[in-house]
């Protein structure tokens, strides 16, 4: 470092309390070493200044190492933060995706519950089939009873027709007994509807009843 550069450094340093002031003072002591009457004292001052300069140099060197180390740490930290930010961004995207899926699942669940509620309000297929089977059995039973009653009615009419035909061949006392029996049987079968035909004796009454 030239003397001019040192002077400029001292001007920038203000009062000259830095290392440049020590170096300048060292140069002055070295230049005045041959002119001084007490070279030992100047030598001691030079040694002290050299120690101070060396200490300052080591201090600056350590500071520089610490700064470099911290710079490296900051760079590593910056890289780690960048990696963490990328991971967090990916996690956020994944969480958004899961949230959208959960929202869709909830919507589907609500629709399913509504459909299940509607189905529950309607009778089930098994219940409907059971009711239809009961109705079918009742209809078959009613049809069977109707056929039985019709058959019984046909049989009674045939019997009465046969008896009515026999009435014409019987004498008067026997006719009255048979007619009474036939009339009693007709009354048991049910009341006959009123007829507008005139009263006819003997077997004709029975025939009229049958024609009704």
From TrEMBL:
Gene Ontology biological process terms in this record: mRNA processing
Gene Ontology cellular-component terms listed: THO complex part of transcription export complex
Keyword annotations from UniProtKB, A to Z: Coiled coil, Nucleus
Subcellular location: Nucleus
Residue runs in coiled coils: 74-152
Positions of the UniProt region annotated as Disordered: 171-212
Entries under Pfam families matching the protein: THOC7 (PF05615)
Name of the protein in question: THO complex subunit 7 homolog
